[in-house]
Specification:
Proline_oxidase; 53% helix; single chain; nucleotide-binding; eight-stranded parallel barrel; FAD-linked_oxidoreductase-like; flavoprotein; 308 residues; globular
């Protein structure tokens, strides 16, 4: 399977240099990354709003090795919020953050990440929006959930992400559904060992549906992160059975993938949020998008050949 190989490559500095220098890379990266600067991404937020869509914005970058880099990540989100405030787009755009980018893996990282993310959550609340904590590999999740719980004491709208392929996730879903929090469910895009995660696609899909049933039946706000037409249809049916109105859950899809479906769901009255990443440190995010779907990798290879 190519997926695990690509995910392993996402941690390789040698592959990072090779992919970054490849002639076709810029064209393909542009499919998944909305731009490098906040000035480039704000018009995309405005365009999405004009189409009846909402967005969640991710300033890409995970390989943080110093506290100064973690502070810079915090400041990048605060700059983004200032731009959204000035344009009155706060209600259409939330933020997604990876705590590794806020220093979670450094010495004293749990406290550092909490201290860095809190002002971002506060600033987001001031302009009428919120923040969702992205899930990363399984070793980081206890820290992420603890930070999520702490932030929700003052900002209960703070969201978090759970990953269907992890064995632990059904229990996490029950706890989160009972607490009434905003929960995005995704299949999972990190290379995880068989000791903690399903490896078979069919098993992951079954787990996704089981977890979605828990979320739909609970007190929280489910956010369905999937491009899979079958899972989207299942989500709609489970929401109907649970008696949920269209504004009591939402769909989320990645920028650059199934864009016509984004507009179709919004036109049907669904809340449709586009996960929109931007920034210069795009490599890890980009490689996970290639790993998720073989067609993405073929598109990349074809572009490289064409440029050559």
């Amino acid at each position: 399977m190519l997926g695990p190989v690509i995910l392993a490559a996402s941690r390789s500095d040698k592959m990072r240099r090779f992919v970054s220098a490849a002639p076709g890379t810029k064209q393909v990266v542009g499919r998944f990354i909305a731009g490098e600067t906040v000035e480039q991404v704000v018009p995309i937020v405005q365009d999405a709003a004009d189409k009846g869509l909402e967005v969640t914005l991710d300033v890409v970058g995970e390989d943080i090795t110093t506290r100064e880099q973690a502070f810079a990540a915090r400041d990048a989100y605060l700059e983004l919020i200032e731009h959204l405030k000035g344009l009155g787009l706060g209600e259409r755009a939330e933020m997604s953050v990876k705590l590794s980018m806020f220093g979670q893996a450094l010495d004293g990282g749990h406290e550092l990440a909490l201290a860095n993310v809190r002002p971002v959550v506060e600033a987001a609340a001031e302009i009428g929006t919120t923040v969702t904590l992205d899930a990363e590999d399984h070793t980081t999740l206890d820290s992420m959930f603890a930070i999520h719980e702490e932030l929700r004491k003052d900002y209960p709208q703070t969201g978090c992400v759970i990953q269907a392929y992890l064995f632990r996730t059904e229990d996490d879903a029950r706890r989160l559904a009972a607490s009434g929090s905003r929960v995005r469910i995704v299949k999972g895009a990190y290379k995880e060992p068989a000791a903690v995660a399903f490896q078979d696609k069919a098993e992951i899909d079954k787990a996704y549906v089981r977890i979605l049933k828990i979320l739909m039946a609970g007190d929280g706000y489910p956010m369905i992160g999937s491009h899979d037409p079958r899972l989207i249809a299942v989500s709609q049916e489970l929401a109907r059975r649970a008696g949920r109105k269209l504004d009591e859950y939402e769909f989320q899809m990645l920028y650059g993938i199934r864009s016509e479906e984004h507009v179709r769901l919004a036109a049907e009255g669904h809340r449709m949020r586009v996960y929109t990443a931007y920034g210069t440190d795009w490599y890890g995010y980009f490689m996970r998008r290639l790993a998720e779907k073989p067609a993405n990798l073929l598109f990349f290879v074809r572009s490289m050949i064409t440029k050559n």
